[in-house]
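Hi there,

I know you've been waiting on this one. I reran it after we fixed the sequence typo, so this is the corrected version. Both the input and the resulting structure follow.
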Amino acid sequence: MITISDNIYHITDGKYSYAFFVKDGKLVHSYYGKALPVDKARMKSSALNALSVHSFGYDWMPFEVGERGRGDFRIPSAAVSGNGFTSTDFLFESAEVLDDKPSLNMPSLRGKAQTLAVTLKDAVAGLELKLYYTVYDGALARHTEIKNIGKLPVTLCTLDSACTELDIGDYDYISLDGRWGAECGVSRQSVAYGVHTLSSSRGVTSHQHNPFLAVLDKDATEHSGDVYGFNLIYSGNFAARMERDEKSRVRVNFGAQIAEGGISLEVGESFVSPELVSVYTDEGVGGMSRIFHKLYRTRLIDPRFADKPRPIVVNSWESVYFDFDEQKLKRFIDGANGLGIDTVVLDDGWFGKRDSDNCSLGDWIIDRRKLPNGLKAVIDHCKKNGMKFGIWFEPEAISPNSDLYRAHPGWAISTVGRKGIEMRNQYVLDFSNPQVVDYVFEAMRKILAEHEILYVKWDMNRGLSDVPNGKLYFGYVRGVYELYDRLSHEFPNVLIEGCSSGGGRFDPAILYYSPMIWASDDTDAHERTKIQYGLSLCYPLQTLSNHVSVCPNHQSARTTPFDTRGAVASLGCLGYELNVAEISEDEREKIKKQIETYKADRNLILTGELYRLRNPFASDIFCEQVAAEDGSEAYVVAVNTLNKVNLPIGKIKLKGLDENALYSVKELNAQLSGAELMYDGLQPEFRNDFSANIWHIKKLTNKR
């Protein structure tokens, strides 16, 4: 609900309130937190409203737009230069409540939602700025649009999706940081005085920093306390910048990062920022996560796939790499038969002359040396064995040693007069060029249209380099979205799994098209507890693609129990990454049991509410619980690291159950009340290194 009363703009969904007012032409922020009645929001604004912005200066006022050059010396959320000026002075022009938000022409939250649109103008600079606030259940979505209404071009230096001012206080922030093979490590640090920045300039969201940020009270925990979460629906360069000023007020700016030098904004031209999702809760980090999870399940993920069972796949990569032919693939498919696997995915190496990673990207033509009867023979063998077929593409890459590069060297991103930098023996195609997008679409369309393929793994394996201008970064990302759009419309039944050397592009915009993303190339179960824990801060389990792989693990060389690998992988979209043609009979039986159990639990895992009960970054134990929203059942996985003699573990106290109900705990052959499970807890037993406990909990009665 959005109300405008006595100059107070109050946005609420009944759980949170967000309020600001107009003073001396400026939008002054007054409140963001637990829901307030309209009259209380007015009282919160009264103290600031009594002050003159000009008398006290811009340097400490909490603004809805941070500007530079006019006395606000903090980080700006909008900055433009040109025609002899470097400052802006955006003043209130008008406001209206819309039944729905305008189209951003890029991924954003789906569905009709009430939106407040506020128009500001800088008459001297010839600029119009529009701020959009869209109300969703538990969340506030924001984006901005700037238009050059002057007579000369200007340079846009910064345009964040939102500027959020938090009350004076002592805050921490949580970010998801890492590297290839160790994505989304949970880092909690103090918001000290000065500016703190999380960003990517790689052209993709990156392994190094996820486009997520949480700012929380110092005493906030997993289960209680005030938390503000932010997540950008964008797949390119971004920047999240926090500044704690001398009065301990914290400003958070978040948006797409514009490259140094800016981008030209021609007369009459507009620029629209991506959408930023912000949530507030007083129920701790876990409460924030559950808001994001439900929002993305209902408002972001394609409705064709949201809350639906995901295919249980076996991927060929770690099984055969590039070394395969038709007969080897048929043996691989035979090995998958009878295990409960739905889909066989052929990874890299099926096209061009692709015997290693040094050639053929861009040449999406079947390699008849390996597959003399084409993909059809492999697909038919899948069907004969009762399974479907999926395939791997790396659409955005081009190998210097490829027919495509020899024909169109100018299609690779490059700067004039310089030879491009090769990474992973490849360049990146210029997706800001419509001809490039057309070519890749037609190449992929031909493969998909001529074969029964219902699953695509879309990989992207390097950052952008040699980019000639800042505008190309944005054109590139829009080109990626266009290809996704065209493929989704042409092949509505094909599920596209996102991947970027693992989790290098795990963001909400990719989830708009890909209902699941490969969480990491590191499939080691111990490492995955941390990666999956970090991703779960913002992203629902149904978006995490997790595979059980062979041991010793190909990344870590670690050996973990097969049951533990299955337990960790079950917390998301279960799959396999091992050579099912060569595994032992014992492992075959374990896979059958894992898949049978997972299919029985899958609906709960994909749609339930997540409670993180042990943090693997802070202890030797990882534990997550998924509970049905009505408290009728729960699924719990607990994993230890190295076993220790006489280790005092302590009981694990569950969440989200009915304390007055009686529950069965299958693995313990016991019946316990909800109160016992939540307040006393369950005692895990870890007998070996990297061992797992799984508990299935079902409500028996409503009364103890």
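Quick highlight: The chain is about 20% helix and 30% strand.

Best,
R. S.
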